[in-house]
Amino acid sequence: MKKIVLNIAGLALVALGFSSCANKPTAEPTQVEVTDLTSADIVSLNPEADSTGYIVKVGQMAPDFTIALTDGKEISLSALRGKVVMLQFTASWCGVCRKEMPYIEKDIWLKHKNNSDFALIGIDRDEPLDVVIEFAKSTGVTYPMGLDPNADIFAKYALRKSGITRNVLIGKDGKIVMLTRLFNEEEFAALTDKINEMLK
Known about the structure:
Strand order of the largest sheet: 4-3-7-6-5-8-9
Structural class: alpha+beta
Number of helices: 5
Distance between the termini: 58 Å
CATH superfamily of the largest domain: Glutaredoxin
């Protein structure tokens, strides 16, 4: 019988096949020997998560949070009620995030940034202010970026140890309209089309 050793904190991540931009490595993982791990085992451990690690669903109210932006301002999601809101979960060490962000800048932010009915926040996972500021510069994005110490905001939306990049699109009523994972050109086009439609 084949046996494998997995990091407990990353159990769902490994079983669900998250290979890129999953998470920064931890210094001393807690390990356990697991035999014949199946996706059913993961579902039983995390029944609220979908196959991509999201614990929220389309149609649900988006969990509220308050985030500190890189310019020193703070904003709460609930304060944006009445707007179409896009949340982008990201980090400087995520190569897929770096690939996606210029598209978000060009195809979404620059197109809608002057629309008072739209808001976009990049939520950087567990990195200090100076790193996040440099990250935004290096990717050429000008949309607001915020800090998510310990990935506490991220954990309201997905399993804490699941991967990024992720986008959450929220309607004016505060309900989740669309969830994306990784950077798929077809899915990204659907996201931009949905935003365009919602802002007509």
